[in-house]
Amino acid sequence: MRIPTFINLQYVDEKGWLTPELQNFTDDLNQAMQESLSDDGWRFPQLTTAQITSIAGSQPNGTAWYDITTDEPKMKVAGVVKVIQTV
Asked: How far apart are CA 83 and CA 11, in angstroms?
């Protein structure tokens, strides 16, 4: 999930209404959460094997994805993308 970076800005105008900048920040944050959260909890980003392979090198250990090509959850561990074993 890409959470927008917090920026130091004015929250409200002279009349007490949210500023356009804060409205945009809040909209971006809500959109990011709606794309990654559901009524059942947090969802892994759903990517193909090729997409995971192309971005894995630049992602930190602990990054997780759901591979829609192989229908498996995966995580980068010690620099290697591994299948998360499920029962």
From this structure: 43
